[in-house]
Design a protein that fits this description.
75% helix, 20 helices, mainly alpha, globular, 0% strand, 523 residues
């Protein structure tokens, strides 16, 4: 049986699903509800497989499967985007939202079928439930999607299958099944979009910053796959291998990624980037301020490691120490959201590429900085970093950036949504930067009443809710573009449900919470 925390987590997810579809009930709502119900039952099978070691790949051992909370995220995002773009009369992005929702449902259904297929003895009732849910989804897709859209959905599913087999084999214990669905599903969708846009380049169609995101994400993934295969046959820790790493990075960057981006934006990528970054005086001031914050974050890392050297080699950074970086990230993102969201968009993409590249250097022990990074970052490890990669800082960046990247600018008049939708770009700041940080700091220092079956406290959750409400009030004061139109009750419900989810989920909250809060704000 599922334990109590998983049951409560499932109840919270169902509450979010029902809240969303109470606002936007249509034919896709039946599909989303059917998907959520079958994912809840299949979660039993995945958890049993993980406990018995019967899963095909090695998943993160400190978390449950997380299938239900992960399964509904992409479909709900697609449905929310469809409704927003339908209200704005943008047919292209309305259809795009339908494709996103259909793709998310099909990928989640595929993971469910895998779990049911490898469970012994075959769970008859769960098989029937999965079949019913699959029939509803496929029937709806048949009557909703055009032939080209069906092909696009199947392309993403095929990429997801192959990418899962490769990355889950190469990176054992880095993901739970739910996290793998979100991360690999997202990469699969980005790769398919990049291929599609590269084959159908129309000058003037699409914004350069969107192409920059697609190429950067796929570029660093290709780079990682290339070096992973290469270093199977040679020792990555030697100077010769390190020189080859740096040389091939330059070759792939200048010979593949830059021409690819040039084909999409029709101008020199380096000149475009420099012109974009230093276009206005405000951008120069923001970049200077962000450089100072980055230096401060590096200073914290060096200071904490100096304390470890002087005190004890077993010294580990405390929860409060790790939350310093959350405060720095909030201080980074809030001015960008208020003064220049496009600059924040591009800067976050650059930062993601740098983080992943540095993780490659650490993982492969590339000289001269590989061993140093291993030593410095080991201080900040927690139970979620059980695999060969350290991903928590990358998840933090993703959680803050995804609401900015996924914000439907084309469906928002003057770049701003109405009502609670105006807070969509702030979803990462509220859920992770404010809510999760306050819950951890106050819960670990003053919390006494624990939620049943978890280490999280009632005081921490309540503090997180109040802190986010105060943050919303401050956003209203300092960001004149935000107009909530009396949607305060919906904001309170959204913040409360996501804070409760933080208390009970064992998935990576930095990734999951901002997506759920964004969904709630968008509808």
């Amino acid at each position: 049986m599922l334990n109590k925390p998983v049951l409560v987590e499932s109840l919270i997810v169902f509450s979010i699903v029902l809240c969303v579809h109470a606002v936007v009930w249509d034919r896709y709502s039946w599909c989303a509800v059917a998907l959520a119900i079958q994912a809840f039952y299949v979660q039993f099978k995945w958890d049993r497989l993980l406990q018995q070691g019967g899963a095909v790949f090695q998943f993160r051992t400190t978390a449950n499967s997380g299938l239900l909370p992960a399964s509904v995220v992409i479909p709900l995002l697609g449905i929310a985007m469809k409704e927003r773009c339908k209200a704005a009369g943008i047919v292209y992005f309305e259809r795009f939202g339908i494709v996103v929702a259909s793709t998310g449902m099909l990928i989640a259904l595929f993971l469910s079928v895998i779990a049911v297929g490898i469970t012994k003895p075959v769970p008859t009732n769960t098989c029937i439930l999965t079949g019913v849910a699959g029939s509803i989804i496929i029937y709806t897709m048949k009557h909703s999607l055009t032939v080209s859209e069906v092909i696009e959905v199947l392309e993403v599913l095929l990429i997801f299958v192959y990418l899962s087999m490769i990355l889950l084999y190469l990176l054992p214990r880095c993901f739970s099944p739910g996290e793998a669905l979100l991360v690999l599903g997202g990469i699969s969708f980005v790769l398919n979009q990049l291929i599609k846009r590269s084959l159908n380049v129309i000058e003037g169609r699409g914004e350069p910053i969107d192409f920059f995101l697609l190429v950067a994400v796929i570029g660093v993934v290709i780079l990682g796959l290339f070096f992973t295969v290469l270093f199977i046959f040679m020792d990555s820790g030697t100077w010769i291998s390190s020189l080859f790493f740096h040389m091939m990075t330059a070759v792939l960057g200048l010979g593949v990624i830059m021409p690819w981006l040039y084909r999409l934006i029709r101008r020199n990528p380096l000149f475009w980037l420099l012109q974009f970054l230093f276009q206005t005086q405000t951008r120069v001031h923001l970049l200077t301020y962000w450089t100072f914050l980055a230096a401060s974050a590096c200073g914290i890392v060096f200071y904490q490691n100096a304390k470890r050297s002087s005190e004890s080699k077993k010294h580990q950074a405390s929860t409060i120490t790790r939350k310093y970086f959350h405060f720095i990230v909030v201080a980074t993102y809030v001015p960008g959201l208020i003064y220049d969201r496009q600059l924040l968009y591009v800067a976050a993409v650059l930062c993601l590429a740098v983080f992943i590249f540095l993780e490659y250097i650490r993982y492969f022990r590339i000289k001269p900085f590989g061993q140093t990074l291993r030593y410095l970052l080991s201080l900040f490890l927690d139970e979620r970093d059980s695999g060969p990669l350290i991903l928590t800082h990358i998840y933090l960046l993703l959680g803050m950036s995804l609401p900015v990247w996924l914000f439907p600018r084309s469906c928002a008049p003057k770049g701003v949504l109405s009502g609670a939708g105006a807070l969509v770009p702030y979803a990462g700041v509220l859920a992770v930067g404010v809510g999760d940080t306050m819950a951890s700091v106050f819960g670990s220092t003053m919390g006494e009443i624990k939620w049943p079956g978890t280490k999280k406290t009632f005081e921490g959750t309540m503090t997180a809710i109040f802190a986010q409400i105060i943050a919303v009030a401050l956003i209203l004061i300092f960001d004149s573009s935000v107009n909530l139109n009396s949607s305060y009750a919906w904001i309170l419900v959204s913040v409360s449900l996501v804070s409760l989810l933080e208390a009970y989920t064992t998935q990576i909250d930095n990734l999951l919470l901002p997506l759920y809060l964004q969904i709630m704000f968008m509808v």
